[in-house]
Automatic annotation (TrEMBL):
Name recorded for this polypeptide: Endoplasmic reticulum vesicle transporter N-terminal domain-containing protein
UniProt-listed Pfam families: ERGIC_N (PF13850)
Signal peptide from the UniProt entry: none
Transmembrane listed as a keyword: yes
GO cellular component, one term: endoplasmic reticulum
UniProt keyword Ribosomal protein, yes or no: no
InterPro entries hit by this protein: Erv, Erv_N
Transmembrane segments: 20-42
Length: 76
């Protein structure tokens, strides 16, 4: 099992220099939760970036002057 001192050393949120502070268990817990949340969000963003998304839409423009309709296709 992981010792309490090793777990406390993970505390990212110390406000004053390391030699003047004492790490807390709650700070270490918050640091671990924050690091896991950042890794999860990074993974989700990377997955979204690497996913190919293809959308196809066709919209017909109704011309009011009776001439031929101009139809544009935006292909991405």
């Amino acid at each position: 099992m992981v010792s309490t001192n090793k777990l406390k050393s993970v505390d990212f949120y110390r406000k004053i220099p390391r030699d003047l502070t004492e790490a807390s268990l709650s700070g270490a817990g918050l640091s671990i939760v924050a690091a896991l949340a950042m890794m999860f969000l990074f993974g989700m963003e990377l997955n979204n970036y690497l996913t190919v998304n293809t959308s196809t839409t066709v919209i017909v423009d109704n011309s009011s002057d009776g001439e031929f309709l101009r139809i544009d296709f935006n292909i991405r």
